Description:
The chain is an all-alpha fold. Helices cover about 75% and strands about 0% of the residues. The protein has helices at about 10-15, 20-50, 60-70, 70-100, 105-130, 145-150.
Amino acid sequence: MMTAPDLTTPRERIRSGRMRRQAERWSWMFMRFSGAILILLIFTHLFVNLITGDGVSQIDFAFVAGKWADWWWQWADFLMLVLAMLHGGNGMRLLINDYAHRKTTRTVLMGVLGVAVAVVIVLGSLVIWTFDPCPVDADPSLLPSFCATVAA
Ligand code: HEM
C-alpha cells in the first residue's frame, strides 16, 4: 500500500498545497462563525437604533455619545466593525480569486482590498475608542445630559 509522503518542514508543506488547503478550511469556518455573530450584532444594532425609543429621529450627537459612554456598546460596535470588514473582505478575496484570471489583476485587486479593509478598521476603531462625548466648545444643547455633571 502507498503511504503519503512525510511533509515535515513548512517549505514542503507550502509546496504540497497542504497549508493553503488548511488556511482555506479556517477561512470557511471563520465565514460561518462570523456570519452567525454578525446577524446577531447587526439586528441588535438596527433594532436599538431604529425601533426602540423615538426610532431613527432620536439619532443625533447625544444619542451616539450616550451609547459610546457605555463600554458594552463600544465593544459591540468594535466587534461588528472588525467582523463585518473581515467577513466582507474575505468574501471579496474569494470573488477576486474566482473571477480575476490575470495574475497582475489579482495582485492589484488584492492589494486595494487589503488597504481598504485595513483603513476602515483603523479609522472606525479610532472613532469608537477616542470619541469625546463632551467636547469643550460644543453647544451644550447638543450634548448628552451627563456632560452637565462632567462640566460642573
Ligand atoms: C438604517 C440603518 C442604520 C442606522 C440608522 C445606523 C446608525 C448608526 C449609528 C447612529 C452609529 C453610531 C453608534 C451606534 O449607534 O452604535 C452606527 C455605528 C455603526 N454601524 Fe450602523 N446603522 C445602520 C445600519 C448598519 C448596518 C447594516 C451595519 C453593518 C453592516 C452597521 C454597522 C455599523 C458599525 C460597524 C458602526 C460603528 C462605526 C465606527 O466604527 O465608527 N450599521 N450606526
